[in-house]
Specification:
The protein is mainly α. It is 60% helix and 0% strand.
Length: 399
Protein backbone atom coordinates (compact mmCIF):
# COMPACT_ATOMS: atom_id res chain seq x y z
CA UNK A 1 0.00 0.00 0.00
CA UNK A 2 2.76 2.40 0.97
CA UNK A 3 4.89 1.60 -2.09
CA UNK A 4 1.96 2.16 -4.39
CA UNK A 5 1.25 5.64 -3.01
CA UNK A 6 4.93 6.60 -3.23
CA UNK A 7 4.97 5.53 -6.84
CA UNK A 8 1.94 7.62 -7.65
CA UNK A 9 3.29 10.70 -5.91
CA UNK A 10 6.68 10.51 -7.64
CA UNK A 11 5.34 10.00 -11.17
CA UNK A 12 5.20 13.01 -13.49
CA UNK A 13 2.02 14.41 -14.96
CA UNK A 14 2.43 12.68 -18.28
CA UNK A 15 2.84 9.21 -16.79
CA UNK A 16 -0.17 9.70 -14.48
CA UNK A 17 -2.25 10.71 -17.46
CA UNK A 18 -1.12 7.67 -19.42
CA UNK A 19 -1.81 5.30 -16.48
CA UNK A 20 -5.22 6.86 -15.95
CA UNK A 21 -6.17 6.33 -19.56
CA UNK A 22 -4.95 2.73 -19.42
CA UNK A 23 -6.96 2.01 -16.27
CA UNK A 24 -10.00 3.56 -17.81
CA UNK A 25 -9.67 1.45 -20.96
CA UNK A 26 -9.12 -1.75 -18.99
CA UNK A 27 -12.05 -1.13 -16.76
CA UNK A 28 -14.38 -0.26 -19.60
CA UNK A 29 -13.35 -3.36 -21.51
CA UNK A 30 -14.02 -5.60 -18.47
CA UNK A 31 -17.40 -4.05 -17.77
CA UNK A 32 -18.30 -4.22 -21.42
CA UNK A 33 -17.58 -7.96 -21.36
CA UNK A 34 -19.62 -8.40 -18.19
CA UNK A 35 -22.50 -6.38 -19.55
CA UNK A 36 -22.41 -8.16 -22.86
CA UNK A 37 -22.55 -11.50 -21.05
CA UNK A 38 -25.75 -10.42 -19.30
CA UNK A 39 -27.33 -8.66 -22.26
CA UNK A 40 -25.48 -8.88 -25.52
CA UNK A 41 -27.69 -6.27 -27.14
CA UNK A 42 -27.25 -3.69 -24.38
CA UNK A 43 -25.02 -0.59 -24.78
CA UNK A 44 -22.36 0.35 -22.26
CA UNK A 45 -24.06 3.61 -21.44
CA UNK A 46 -27.17 1.73 -20.28
CA UNK A 47 -25.48 -0.05 -17.34
CA UNK A 48 -27.76 1.48 -14.74
CA UNK A 49 -29.94 -1.51 -13.89
CA UNK A 50 -27.61 -2.73 -11.14
CA UNK A 51 -26.82 -0.11 -8.47
CA UNK A 52 -24.01 -2.20 -7.06
CA UNK A 53 -22.26 -2.21 -10.45
CA UNK A 54 -22.79 1.52 -10.84
CA UNK A 55 -21.21 2.10 -7.47
CA UNK A 56 -18.29 -0.07 -8.40
CA UNK A 57 -17.72 2.00 -11.53
CA UNK A 58 -17.63 5.22 -9.52
CA UNK A 59 -15.19 3.68 -7.10
CA UNK A 60 -12.95 2.32 -9.79
CA UNK A 61 -12.63 5.70 -11.54
CA UNK A 62 -11.49 7.38 -8.32
CA UNK A 63 -7.76 6.63 -8.53
CA UNK A 64 -6.79 8.65 -5.49
CA UNK A 65 -8.91 6.69 -2.99
CA UNK A 66 -8.98 3.19 -4.50
CA UNK A 67 -6.19 0.64 -3.90
CA UNK A 68 -4.94 -0.91 -7.11
CA UNK A 69 -3.89 -4.53 -7.12
CA UNK A 70 -0.19 -5.15 -7.53
CA UNK A 71 -0.65 -7.30 -10.59
CA UNK A 72 -2.70 -4.64 -12.35
CA UNK A 73 -0.12 -2.04 -11.40
CA UNK A 74 2.68 -4.09 -12.92
CA UNK A 75 0.70 -4.46 -16.13
CA UNK A 76 0.02 -0.73 -16.16
CA UNK A 77 3.68 0.13 -15.63
CA UNK A 78 4.74 -2.10 -18.44
CA UNK A 79 2.18 -0.57 -20.78
CA UNK A 80 3.09 2.99 -19.80
CA UNK A 81 6.80 2.32 -20.22
CA UNK A 82 6.13 1.01 -23.71
CA UNK A 83 4.16 4.12 -24.55
CA UNK A 84 6.86 6.50 -23.22
CA UNK A 85 9.58 4.60 -25.06
CA UNK A 86 7.58 4.94 -28.25
CA UNK A 87 7.25 8.68 -27.68
CA UNK A 88 11.00 9.06 -27.18
CA UNK A 89 11.56 7.09 -30.36
CA UNK A 90 9.34 9.55 -32.23
CA UNK A 91 11.33 12.48 -30.80
CA UNK A 92 14.55 10.80 -31.82
CA UNK A 93 13.26 10.68 -35.38
CA UNK A 94 13.27 14.50 -35.35
CA UNK A 95 17.09 14.47 -34.96
CA UNK A 96 17.21 17.13 -32.28
CA UNK A 97 19.73 15.37 -30.06
CA UNK A 98 23.45 16.06 -30.29
CA UNK A 99 24.32 12.52 -31.34
CA UNK A 100 22.38 13.08 -34.61
CA UNK A 101 24.24 16.33 -35.47
CA UNK A 102 27.31 15.73 -37.61
CA UNK A 103 29.93 18.41 -37.04
CA UNK A 104 32.65 19.02 -39.66
CA UNK A 105 36.23 18.34 -38.78
CA UNK A 106 38.94 20.98 -38.78
CA UNK A 107 40.62 19.72 -41.97
CA UNK A 108 37.45 19.02 -43.96
CA UNK A 109 37.14 20.77 -47.34
CA UNK A 110 34.44 23.49 -47.40
CA UNK A 111 32.34 23.86 -50.55
CA UNK A 112 30.10 26.58 -49.13
CA UNK A 113 30.61 30.22 -50.21
CA UNK A 114 31.40 32.17 -47.04
CA UNK A 115 32.98 35.21 -48.67
CA UNK A 116 30.22 37.41 -47.23
CA UNK A 117 31.27 36.51 -43.69
CA UNK A 118 33.79 38.86 -42.13
CA UNK A 119 34.79 40.48 -38.91
CA UNK A 120 32.39 43.03 -37.46
CA UNK A 121 33.57 46.55 -38.24
CA UNK A 122 34.09 48.41 -35.00
CA UNK A 123 34.07 52.24 -34.81
CA UNK A 124 37.25 53.84 -36.10
CA UNK A 125 38.94 57.24 -35.96
CA UNK A 126 39.74 57.28 -39.69
CA UNK A 127 38.21 56.13 -42.94
CA UNK A 128 41.20 53.96 -43.87
CA UNK A 129 39.83 51.04 -41.84
CA UNK A 130 36.87 50.68 -44.20
CA UNK A 131 38.84 51.05 -47.45
CA UNK A 132 39.29 47.31 -47.99
CA UNK A 133 35.61 46.43 -47.45
CA UNK A 134 33.84 49.41 -49.05
CA UNK A 135 33.77 49.66 -52.84
CA UNK A 136 32.40 53.20 -52.59
CA UNK A 137 35.42 54.39 -50.63
CA UNK A 138 37.76 52.68 -53.08
CA UNK A 139 36.13 54.33 -56.10
CA UNK A 140 36.18 57.77 -54.49
CA UNK A 141 39.87 57.43 -53.68
CA UNK A 142 40.61 56.34 -57.25
CA UNK A 143 38.71 59.44 -58.40
CA UNK A 144 41.13 61.56 -56.36
CA UNK A 145 38.88 62.57 -53.46
CA UNK A 146 40.88 63.31 -50.29
CA UNK A 147 38.51 61.79 -47.76
CA UNK A 148 40.99 62.15 -44.91
CA UNK A 149 40.29 65.89 -44.89
CA UNK A 150 36.70 65.19 -43.80
CA UNK A 151 37.25 62.34 -41.33
CA UNK A 152 36.14 64.50 -38.42
CA UNK A 153 32.66 64.75 -39.97
CA UNK A 154 31.25 61.45 -38.73
CA UNK A 155 27.84 62.04 -40.30
CA UNK A 156 29.35 62.57 -43.75
CA UNK A 157 31.53 59.45 -43.48
CA UNK A 158 28.56 57.32 -42.41
CA UNK A 159 26.58 58.74 -45.32
CA UNK A 160 29.25 57.81 -47.88
CA UNK A 161 29.71 54.32 -46.43
CA UNK A 162 25.99 53.64 -46.73
CA UNK A 163 25.81 54.57 -50.44
CA UNK A 164 26.36 52.50 -53.55
CA UNK A 165 28.78 54.19 -55.94
CA UNK A 166 27.13 53.23 -59.22
CA UNK A 167 23.57 53.78 -58.09
CA UNK A 168 23.83 56.75 -55.70
CA UNK A 169 27.06 58.69 -56.45
CA UNK A 170 27.81 58.22 -60.14
CA UNK A 171 24.81 60.35 -61.30
CA UNK A 172 26.42 63.38 -59.61
CA UNK A 173 29.69 62.77 -61.44
CA UNK A 174 27.87 62.53 -64.76
CA UNK A 175 25.94 65.73 -63.95
CA UNK A 176 29.13 67.72 -63.26
CA UNK A 177 30.74 66.37 -66.41
CA UNK A 178 27.72 67.57 -68.40
CA UNK A 179 28.13 71.01 -66.79
CA UNK A 180 31.68 71.22 -68.15
CA UNK A 181 33.74 70.21 -65.11
CA UNK A 182 36.90 68.46 -66.40
CA UNK A 183 37.37 64.83 -65.43
CA UNK A 184 40.77 65.46 -63.87
CA UNK A 185 39.23 68.14 -61.63
CA UNK A 186 36.44 65.94 -60.21
CA UNK A 187 38.59 64.62 -57.37
CA UNK A 188 39.50 68.11 -56.20
CA UNK A 189 35.90 69.23 -56.68
CA UNK A 190 34.47 66.57 -54.34
CA UNK A 191 37.34 67.14 -51.92
CA UNK A 192 36.19 70.73 -51.55
CA UNK A 193 32.50 69.89 -51.56
CA UNK A 194 31.63 66.27 -50.69
CA UNK A 195 28.26 67.49 -49.37
CA UNK A 196 27.05 67.79 -52.96
CA UNK A 197 26.12 64.09 -52.75
CA UNK A 198 23.42 65.02 -50.23
CA UNK A 199 21.72 67.51 -52.57
CA UNK A 200 18.74 66.27 -54.53
CA UNK A 201 19.44 65.84 -58.22
CA UNK A 202 16.32 67.76 -59.24
CA UNK A 203 17.51 70.77 -57.21
CA UNK A 204 20.86 70.71 -59.00
CA UNK A 205 19.18 70.81 -62.40
CA UNK A 206 16.96 73.68 -61.20
CA UNK A 207 19.98 75.73 -60.09
CA UNK A 208 21.67 75.29 -63.45
CA UNK A 209 18.47 76.28 -65.25
CA UNK A 210 18.34 79.41 -63.08
CA UNK A 211 21.75 80.52 -64.36
CA UNK A 212 20.82 79.73 -67.93
CA UNK A 213 17.62 81.74 -67.53
CA UNK A 214 19.66 84.77 -66.42
CA UNK A 215 21.82 84.50 -69.55
CA UNK A 216 24.89 82.83 -68.06
CA UNK A 217 26.50 80.90 -70.89
CA UNK A 218 28.06 77.46 -70.59
CA UNK A 219 31.60 78.78 -70.08
CA UNK A 220 30.41 81.12 -67.33
CA UNK A 221 28.63 78.28 -65.53
CA UNK A 222 31.72 76.10 -65.84
CA UNK A 223 33.90 78.88 -64.36
CA UNK A 224 31.46 79.54 -61.53
CA UNK A 225 31.18 75.87 -60.52
CA UNK A 226 34.89 75.11 -60.78
CA UNK A 227 35.97 78.24 -58.91
CA UNK A 228 33.33 77.79 -56.22
CA UNK A 229 32.32 74.08 -55.84
CA UNK A 230 29.93 74.97 -53.02
CA UNK A 231 27.85 77.15 -55.31
CA UNK A 232 25.43 74.30 -56.08
CA UNK A 233 24.72 73.80 -52.37
CA UNK A 234 22.79 77.07 -52.27
CA UNK A 235 19.17 77.26 -53.36
CA UNK A 236 18.03 79.51 -56.19
CA UNK A 237 16.22 81.72 -53.68
CA UNK A 238 19.43 82.46 -51.77
CA UNK A 239 21.44 83.05 -54.96
CA UNK A 240 18.77 85.38 -56.32
CA UNK A 241 18.76 87.37 -53.06
CA UNK A 242 22.55 87.73 -53.09
CA UNK A 243 22.70 88.85 -56.71
CA UNK A 244 19.90 91.32 -56.05
CA UNK A 245 21.84 92.80 -53.12
CA UNK A 246 24.94 93.53 -55.23
CA UNK A 247 22.88 94.84 -58.11
CA UNK A 248 20.92 97.25 -55.91
CA UNK A 249 23.72 98.38 -53.56
CA UNK A 250 26.36 99.02 -56.24
CA UNK A 251 24.06 100.03 -59.12
CA UNK A 252 25.03 97.16 -61.41
CA UNK A 253 23.32 96.18 -64.63
CA UNK A 254 22.75 92.59 -65.77
CA UNK A 255 26.03 92.34 -67.65
CA UNK A 256 28.01 93.67 -64.67
CA UNK A 257 26.27 91.20 -62.33
CA UNK A 258 27.30 88.33 -64.59
CA UNK A 259 30.82 89.75 -64.78
CA UNK A 260 31.08 90.00 -61.00
CA UNK A 261 29.67 86.48 -60.50
CA UNK A 262 32.03 84.93 -63.02
CA UNK A 263 35.08 86.77 -61.73
CA UNK A 264 34.56 85.87 -58.06
CA UNK A 265 31.65 83.51 -57.48
CA UNK A 266 32.78 82.93 -53.89
CA UNK A 267 31.80 86.50 -53.06
CA UNK A 268 28.17 85.75 -53.92
CA UNK A 269 28.02 82.85 -51.45
CA UNK A 270 30.15 84.52 -48.78
CA UNK A 271 28.80 85.55 -45.35
CA UNK A 272 26.44 88.45 -45.86
CA UNK A 273 27.18 90.06 -42.48
CA UNK A 274 30.85 90.33 -43.41
CA UNK A 275 30.01 91.77 -46.81
CA UNK A 276 27.71 94.39 -45.29
CA UNK A 277 30.39 95.39 -42.77
CA UNK A 278 33.00 95.85 -45.49
CA UNK A 279 30.54 97.83 -47.56
CA UNK A 280 30.07 100.18 -44.62
CA UNK A 281 33.87 100.43 -44.17
CA UNK A 282 34.54 101.28 -47.82
CA UNK A 283 31.72 103.80 -48.02
CA UNK A 284 31.68 105.49 -44.63
CA UNK A 285 35.13 105.04 -43.07
CA UNK A 286 37.23 105.30 -46.24
CA UNK A 287 34.99 107.85 -47.91
CA UNK A 288 34.57 106.34 -51.41
CA UNK A 289 31.47 107.37 -53.34
CA UNK A 290 29.17 104.84 -55.01
CA UNK A 291 30.89 105.10 -58.40
CA UNK A 292 34.31 104.51 -56.87
CA UNK A 293 32.86 101.63 -54.83
CA UNK A 294 31.47 100.11 -58.01
CA UNK A 295 34.86 100.37 -59.73
CA UNK A 296 36.61 98.77 -56.74
CA UNK A 297 34.05 95.95 -56.58
CA UNK A 298 34.28 95.04 -60.27
CA UNK A 299 38.08 95.27 -60.25
CA UNK A 300 38.92 93.64 -56.91
CA UNK A 301 35.81 91.95 -55.40
CA UNK A 302 38.09 90.05 -53.01
CA UNK A 303 38.35 93.23 -50.90
CA UNK A 304 34.85 92.53 -49.55
CA UNK A 305 36.08 89.16 -48.24
CA UNK A 306 39.15 90.52 -46.40
CA UNK A 307 39.46 91.53 -42.78
CA UNK A 308 38.17 95.07 -42.35
CA UNK A 309 40.94 95.93 -39.87
CA UNK A 310 43.68 95.15 -42.42
CA UNK A 311 41.88 97.04 -45.16
CA UNK A 312 41.50 100.14 -43.01
CA UNK A 313 45.17 100.15 -41.93
CA UNK A 314 46.42 99.74 -45.53
CA UNK A 315 44.09 102.46 -46.82
CA UNK A 316 45.12 104.82 -44.02
CA UNK A 317 48.80 104.50 -44.91
CA UNK A 318 48.23 104.76 -48.68
CA UNK A 319 45.95 107.78 -48.41
CA UNK A 320 47.57 109.74 -45.55
CA UNK A 321 51.26 108.79 -45.80
CA UNK A 322 51.69 108.13 -49.52
CA UNK A 323 49.17 110.89 -50.39
CA UNK A 324 47.19 108.77 -52.84
CA UNK A 325 43.75 110.14 -53.71
CA UNK A 326 40.47 108.20 -53.58
CA UNK A 327 40.19 108.32 -57.34
CA UNK A 328 43.70 106.93 -57.80
CA UNK A 329 43.12 104.13 -55.28
CA UNK A 330 39.81 103.20 -56.90
CA UNK A 331 41.57 102.91 -60.27
CA UNK A 332 44.21 100.58 -58.74
CA UNK A 333 42.35 98.98 -55.80
CA UNK A 334 44.71 95.99 -55.50
CA UNK A 335 46.83 98.19 -53.23
CA UNK A 336 44.19 97.64 -50.53
CA UNK A 337 44.94 93.91 -50.60
CA UNK A 338 48.58 94.47 -49.66
CA UNK A 339 49.78 94.20 -46.09
CA UNK A 340 50.57 97.55 -44.52
CA UNK A 341 54.06 96.47 -43.42
CA UNK A 342 55.06 95.38 -46.93
CA UNK A 343 53.71 98.60 -48.45
CA UNK A 344 55.46 100.70 -45.83
CA UNK A 345 58.87 99.00 -46.21
CA UNK A 346 59.00 99.36 -49.99
CA UNK A 347 57.64 102.91 -50.05
CA UNK A 348 60.19 104.16 -47.51
CA UNK A 349 63.01 102.42 -49.37
CA UNK A 350 61.99 104.20 -52.59
CA UNK A 351 61.88 107.47 -50.66
CA UNK A 352 65.48 106.90 -49.58
CA UNK A 353 66.42 106.38 -53.23
CA UNK A 354 64.29 109.32 -54.44
CA UNK A 355 62.11 107.13 -56.64
CA UNK A 356 58.78 107.25 -54.73
CA UNK A 357 56.79 108.79 -57.59
CA UNK A 358 53.28 107.41 -58.24
CA UNK A 359 51.84 110.05 -60.58
CA UNK A 360 51.50 108.58 -64.09
CA UNK A 361 51.72 112.08 -65.63
CA UNK A 362 55.25 112.62 -64.30
CA UNK A 363 58.60 110.98 -65.10
CA UNK A 364 59.95 108.00 -63.11
CA UNK A 365 56.41 106.77 -62.52
CA UNK A 366 56.04 103.67 -60.31
CA UNK A 367 52.80 101.74 -60.58
CA UNK A 368 51.24 100.40 -57.43
CA UNK A 369 51.09 96.86 -58.76
CA UNK A 370 54.85 96.95 -59.41
CA UNK A 371 55.37 98.39 -55.92
CA UNK A 372 53.52 95.67 -54.02
CA UNK A 373 53.87 92.75 -56.45
CA UNK A 374 56.68 90.30 -57.09
CA UNK A 375 59.52 89.11 -54.92
CA UNK A 376 62.18 91.31 -53.33
CA UNK A 377 64.59 90.47 -56.14
CA UNK A 378 62.07 91.57 -58.78
CA UNK A 379 61.28 94.74 -56.82
CA UNK A 380 64.95 95.69 -56.51
CA UNK A 381 65.70 94.93 -60.16
CA UNK A 382 62.62 96.44 -61.85
CA UNK A 383 61.52 99.26 -59.50
CA UNK A 384 64.28 100.26 -57.10
CA UNK A 385 67.07 99.68 -59.66
CA UNK A 386 69.44 98.48 -56.95
CA UNK A 387 70.81 95.26 -55.52
CA UNK A 388 68.96 92.92 -53.25
CA UNK A 389 71.73 93.16 -50.64
CA UNK A 390 71.12 96.89 -50.33
CA UNK A 391 67.42 96.33 -49.70
CA UNK A 392 68.17 93.60 -47.17
CA UNK A 393 70.54 95.90 -45.33
CA UNK A 394 67.85 98.57 -45.21
CA UNK A 395 65.30 96.14 -43.80
CA UNK A 396 67.75 95.14 -41.06
CA UNK A 397 68.34 98.78 -40.17
CA UNK A 398 64.66 99.54 -39.57
CA UNK A 399 63.92 96.40 -37.59
Amino acid sequence: MWSIRCYVSLSNAKQIKVITNIFKKQFLSKNRNINNSINPNAHFSTIESKPEERGYVEKALNLENEVIPVQSLQETQSNSSDWIQKTITNVDDLSIYDEYIKLPKALDFCNEDISHIGNYQLPSYNIAKYANSSETIQRLIKLGVKLYEHETDVELMEFLLSKDFEKDLFPYIRFLHDCGVPGEYLGEFFTKNPYLFKVDMDDLHTRIRYLRFHQFNINMIKTIICFNPKWLNFSTKIIDTRLGYFQTTFCLNGKEVRQLTTKNSKLITYKMNHIRENTFVVKELMGFNRYEMKAILLNQPKIWMKCKKNIISTFDYAHNEMKLSHEFISSQPYVLLCRKRRLEQRHKFLEKLGRAQYDPTKPMYVSLIALIGGTNDQFCQNVAKTSTETFDSYLKSIM
